[in-house]
Specification:
Elements lengths: L1 H24 L1 H9 L4 H23 L12 H11 L29 H4 L2 H16 L4 E3 L9 E6 L1 H5 L3 H7 L4 E24 L6 E16 L5 E7 H14 L14 E2 L2 H6 L16
Antiparallel strand pairs: 1-2, 2-3, 3-4, 4-5, 4-6
Organism: Acromyrmex charruanus
Protein name: Peptide deformylase
InterPro entries: Peptide_deformylase, Peptide_deformylase_sf
Length: 290
């Protein structure tokens, strides 16, 4: 009789613990819905974000547990989860477009990715997708949060083709150079030269606007590459600026927090006046990605 009573108490405590965890994980969704009634599409988006948030927390933990542990989750199960959550369907993550300011994913602190996850074929597809979106927007860089993934990953690139379209005076003043495609995963940034250099910046997540932003002249980054191998990258001038911009995205920060507010401007204000306001701003890529 005593044994049965203990079993019942254990089951009851287990149910209570599970319920508390469930309520804790979803508090942010319920609190948002209390303040504002979202359309069904927004509720679906919040639920999708919760699934991704929950998965990334689980995936980043289970791969660090020793394989002889009874709690270790089979790596194949993780792969199935990635494939289900990260399908290339336009209604699922990762997006083929860039998220805009206001999206909660741009304001959260991105989570680290374990090497075991990086080496998965499905995660490699995510890296390829990230690069394709960046090139489609003809951007110098892009981060995971910008395509809806709250993970510590970003890519930067400045091709010879892009450089050809930049004026020589701008190249010199910005200290622009060709940057080969570089993937940074779980980056740790260290400022080498704190000398502030103020130049205008734009961001695909605040499309149509720019502002003067001070950045450190030289930085060093230690990160994992697409093969989960650690490397050290050092740069100054324009390259360092791009890296700092993308690194900020992983911290939930945007350039508008560091800009000179008096310089914040719509990049097409002159054209808008000339066309008497008859202009539209598109959030689509500048070209279709392959």
């Amino acid at each position: 009789m005593v044994t049965k009573l203990r079993i019942r108490r254990c089951k009851s405590r287990h149910r209570q613990a599970e319920e508390q965890k469930y309520q804790c994980d979803r508090w942010w969704i319920t609190s948002l819905l209390e303040f504002k009634k979202y359309p069904s599409s927004d509720i679906q988006a919040l639920n999708t974000m919760y699934r991704i948030y929950n998965f990334t927390n689980v995936a980043s933990r289970v791969v660090t547990i020793k394989r002889n542990s009874a709690r270790f989750v089979n790596i194949l199960k993780i792969k199935e989860t990635i494939q289900r959550l990260l399908g290339m369907n336009s209604n699922e993550l990762p997006y083929a477009h860039v998220c805009q300011v206001g999206d909660p994913v741009l304001r959260g602190h991105a989570m680290k990715i374990e090497p075991e996850v990086i080496r998965m074929a499905d995660f490699q597809k995510v890296i390829t997708h990230l690069i394709n979106v960046m090139r489609a927007y003809k951007s110098y860089g892009i981060s995971g949060p910008q395509i809806g993934l709250p993970w510590q990953i970003f890519a930067i690139e400045c091709t010879e083709e892009i450089m050809e379209g930049v004026e020589e005076t701008v190249k010199k003043t910005h200290e622009m150079n060709i940057i080969p495609m570089t993937i940074f995963i779980n980056p740790e940034l260290k400022v080498i030269d704190y000398t502030p250099i103020t130049l205008y910046e734009g961001c695909e997540s605040i499309r149509g606007y720019s502002a003067a932003v001070p950045r450190a002249y030289e930085v060093e980054i230690k990160a994992l590459n697409a093969s989960a191998e650690q490397f050290t990258w050092r740069a100054c001038g324009w390259s360092a600026r791009i890296a700092q911009h993308e690194y900020d995205h992983l911290q939930g920060k945007l350039y508008i927090e560091k800009m000179d507010v008096r310089t914040f401007q719509c990049t097409a204000w002159d054209k808008i006046n000339k066309n008497k306001g008859k202009m539209r701003l598109s959030y689509l890529p500048k070209k279709i990605s392959v």
